[in-house]
Recover the amino acids of this structure.
């Protein structure tokens, strides 16, 4: 060992405060969800030197106490906090981490205890409950026992890869006490499984959870690692599968809850959904969740009669929510097109966590196919968007079905039809930035122009305090700034806080907010976090 290394080791041991500080990194939280009524002890995974750090949420609703124990915080959901996904980041004087999710659930919470992988050694749980767990050790299998009465509907649903970003492809099995498998599921909601079955007899049933890696390897074996965190909901009561419609707007706020023991239940969403809610709607006392949008267009529900013989008329713009209920079912919608008008028609299912491999096709009144779209790419099972310019005045017919002629209660889709209007999006490469005192901070912004958007776009940063400056920049369709611009923050003020970057196109009042897509989740962060180190 060199003399320099020995001296550094002694210095760190004797004077720990000499450890060089660095921005924190937050990779996950465990448990990955909390309930209501008291503080929950949550372990932060990542690097936090020095400790303590500040923990910042993306929206109001949580009280967060940073304890003296390194990596541990106490989190309490406020009484009026909406259920759903919250995103937290760690902040210190040197910078900030990216956002990571934590769920405020609607049921009682239970944290799994190991060992629970052997026959008879499972964790006993009372229903309904959400289990917070981790497949941490090699070839780990977590098991939980529940008691059911004959004829009861039982649902086991996992939140893992799709919401929490866990890199696992999990499997749920339900077995009786003798070990005979009664039900099993793999990929019901993306990589996350869900099992629903009716108890054939009264007694104890065992729920098993194990996983493979999302990215396959050569082992062909069960996989486990510290990042395989999950929330497993187990219930024999009401369970929300989805809402109809899958969206609200303006004064159109009522939705019907669809799922076990929810026949005829309707809810009114009286306030706009926060953009930070990631589109996941939950209700206190009801298990399950639904993806939903709060948009500026009308929402409708596909009728049972929407077919080739009786197409359902729709206006533009409209979003229609429907279900491919039976194999070979085709939902048909009639759009009165205007000559030379261009329309954008899209359908989503897998992206929303449902089962349909949606197939989208347009026909003229004579039954001739005008255009068709299936998978957007090899890994995207939703068709994406059809752009169609009408050649004559008159009806066109939009057909939605499953590509393989499958159907069922979870073959749910959302069809959106709107006129093609010039617009743009702004994309950030990160959601957190650190500015050093003596240097300007450059933030690149990617500009994507859609439907022939040809305006000059003024891009600026909102929320900077006095002492920090950033001149607005223009994305000009006539030069290289058409697709990318760079903002430059200057000044020497010490500052920590959330900011937004917005775009304003010539001749348009509405501003567009720049977003960043969080890796491993479906969440798009609309606020960036800036740490300016000052002098």
């Amino acid at each position: 060992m060199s003399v320099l290394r020995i001296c550094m080791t002694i210095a760190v041991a004797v004077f720990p405060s000499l450890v060089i500080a660095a921005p924190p990194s937050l990779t996950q939280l465990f448990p990955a969800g909390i309930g209501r009524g008291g503080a929950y002890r949550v372990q932060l995974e990542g690097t936090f030197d020095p400790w303590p750090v500040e923990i910042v949420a993306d929206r109001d609703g949580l009280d967060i106490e940073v304890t003296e124990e390194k990596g541990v915080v106490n989190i309490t959901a406020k009484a009026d906090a909406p259920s759903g996904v919250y995103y937290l980041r760690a902040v210190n004087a040197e910078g900030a981490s990216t956002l990571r999710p934590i769920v405020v659930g609607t049921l009682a919470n239970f944290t799994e205890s190991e060992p629970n992988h052997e026959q008879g050694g499972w964790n006993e749980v009372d229903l309904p409950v959400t289990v917070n767990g981790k497949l941490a050790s090699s070839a780990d299998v977590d098991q939980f026992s529940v008691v059911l009465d004959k004829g009861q509907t039982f649902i086991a649903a996992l939140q893992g890869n799709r919401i929490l970003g866990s890199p696992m492809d999990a499997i749920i099995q339900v077995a009786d006490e003798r070990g005979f498998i009664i039900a099993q599921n793999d990929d019901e909601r993306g990589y996350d499984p869900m099992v629903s079955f009716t108890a054939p007899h009264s007694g104890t049933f065992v729920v098993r959870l194990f996983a493979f890696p999302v990215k396959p390897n050569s082992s062909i074996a069960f996989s486990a690692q510290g990042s395989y965190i999950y929330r497993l909901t187990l219930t024999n009561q009401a369970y929300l599968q989805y809402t109809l419609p899958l969206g609200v707007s303006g004064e159109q706020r009522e939705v019907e809850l669809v799922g076990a023991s929810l026949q005829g239940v309707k809810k009114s969403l009286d306030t706009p959904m926060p953009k930070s809610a990631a589109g996941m709607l939950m209700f206190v006392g009801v298990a399950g969740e639904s993806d939903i949008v709060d948009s500026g267009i009308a929402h409708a529900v596909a009728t049972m009669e929407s077919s080739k013989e009786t197409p359902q008329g729709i206006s533009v713009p409209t979003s229609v929510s429907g279900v491919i209920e039976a194999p070979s079912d085709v939902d048909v919608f009639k759009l009165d097109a205007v000559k030379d008008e261009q329309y954008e028609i899209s359908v989503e299912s897998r992206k929303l966590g449902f089962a349909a491999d949606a197939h989208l096709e347009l026909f003229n009144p004579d039954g001739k196919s005008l255009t068709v779209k299936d998978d957007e790419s090899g890994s995207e099972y939703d068709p994406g968007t059809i752009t169609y310019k009408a050649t004559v005045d008159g009806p066109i017919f939009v057909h939605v079905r499953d590509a393989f002629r499958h159907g069922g209660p979870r073959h749910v889709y959302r069809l959106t039809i709107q006129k093609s209007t010039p617009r743009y999006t702004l994309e950030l490469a990160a959601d957190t930035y650190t500015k050093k005192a003596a240097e300007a901070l450059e933030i690149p912004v990617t500009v994507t122009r859609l439907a022939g958007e040809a305006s000059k776009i003024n891009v600026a940063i909102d929320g900077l305090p006095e002492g920090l400056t950033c001149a607005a920049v223009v994305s000009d369709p006539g030069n290289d700034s058409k697709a990318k611009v760079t903002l430059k923050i200057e000044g020497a003020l010490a500052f920590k806080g959330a900011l937004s970057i917005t775009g304003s196109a010539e001749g348009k009042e509405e501003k567009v907010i720049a977003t960043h897509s969080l890796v491993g989740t479906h969440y798009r962060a609309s606020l960036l976090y800036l740490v300016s180190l000052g002098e």
